[in-house]
Write a structure and sequence with these properties.
about 350 residues, mainly beta, Jelly Rolls, 7-stranded antiparallel sheet, disordered N terminus, binds allantoate ion, Galactose-bd-like_sf
Length: about 350
């Protein structure tokens, strides 16, 4: 990782697993598929993208309202569980179990399991899958961000969050590294900068307003908060964002999307590719429009492993898409990674 960080940056601890993307995030396609019980509060809240909200002494038909997943008080042995499909399958390096506002009703212990089921399994197949522990039964604190590092190198498609014996959890975040299924690429050109295809943000000069990984997430940007936005730059120079491509490949079309950046879009941008020690220009400094998805056809036939997006002088980028083809070696390496146990 080569982050250059400044106060207020979202990538607060470079190299820490919490800076890896949340593979369970709804924005990446995550879903809470099932839970054995959700008597007090709905399981779907576990992967809501928003900060947890709470208003004490607000009672619905079932009791106090909580923003999270909450089960009834258990009167028999056993434990409660919820199953989450990862939006992007991958290896998991750490799990966050946030019990915000659950004080008299948090689970004293949690555990997390994972399984790998490629394709499109139904719920019965998922329930009967070969589950393995990611986080063995561990203590949890109430009204706290509980962090658990994970040592597991296998590809995970689903996780199961367990509460021992019962209680409530506000949010579950599953931080890790995408491991795409290259058979889905079907020899077509692809977005070499897409998180879902295995690309990653490895650095940003400034990440004041948002986590820059937003710039390579799927779908259209929902708002100005969804993408990369820097603080106003008060010194000479300019801001930049580094993306390690899904694999070594040749970028032929670049999409620089300033959607929602109406009064804070960069004036200009350029793209610089890196292949090992060699650097070359993909897109020379080019004028940008606010709130606009720009598409540039590039005069390029050289493969690269990473790309630096320069923006002048500051602003951000809602989405960066770099369409092209992987080299045969990169595709073979991706197949090896996918096939690894
Ligand atoms: N949602 C609830 O009302 N939960 C509980 N009670 C309060 N007051 O929060 C509980 O676990 O019994």
């Amino acid at each position: 990782m080569t982050q250059t960080l400044e106060p207020g940056d979202h990538l607060v601890d470079p190299g820490h697993w919490r800076t890896l993307p949340d593979l369970a995030a709804r924005a990446l396609g995550g879903a809470v598929l099932a839970a054995n019980d959700e008597s007090f509060a709905e399981k779907e809240s576990l992967i809501r993208p928003y900060p947890v909200v709470h208003q004490p002494h607000t009672f619905g038909h079932k009791g106090q309202l909580y923003d999270g997943w909450e089960t009834r008080r258990r009167r028999e042995s056993g434990h409660d569980w919820a199953i989450v499909r990862l939006g992007i399958p991958g290896t998991v390096s750490g799990v966050v179990v946030d019990t915000a506002y659950f004080t008299g009703n948090f689970p004293p212990r949690i555990s997390v399991d994972a399984c790998r089921l490629d394709g499109h399994p139904d719920l019965t197949e998922i329930l009967e899958a070969d589950w393995r522990p990611l986080v063995p039964v561990a203590e949890a604190k109430g009204d706290s961000v509980n962090e658990y590092a994970v040592r597991d190198t296998g590809r995970c498609t689903h996780v199961r969050l367990n509460m021992h014996p019962d209680g409530g959890i506000a949010r579950l975040r599953v931080h890790g590294t995408p491991v795409p299924d290259p058979s889905g690429f079907a020899d077509l050109p692809l977005d070499l900068a897409a998180l879902a295809n295995g690309a990653t943000v490895t650095g940003a000069s400034n990440a004041f307003y948002s986590n820059p990984v937003g710039a390579i997430t799927p779908g259209l940007p929902a708002s100005q908060a969804d993408g990369w936005e820097t603080a106003r730059r008060r010194e000479p120079g300019h801001e930049w964002l580094d993306v390690r491509l899904a694999g070594r490949g040749t970028v032929r079309v670049a999409e620089l999307d300033t959607t929602h950046l109406k009064h804070n879009a960069p004036g200009w941008a350029s793209l610089e590719a890196h292949d090992g020690e060699t650097a070359f220009t993909l897109l020379p400094r080019t004028k940008l429009q606010p709130d606009t998805p720009h598409r540039f056809v590039l005069d390029n036939d050289r493969p690269a492993t990473s790309v630096r997006l320069h923006i002048y002088p500051d602003g951000g980028m809602a989405r960066l898409r770099l369409y092209g083809r992987l080299t045969d070696d990169a595709l073979a390496e991706m197949r090896r990674r996918f096939d690894a146990p």
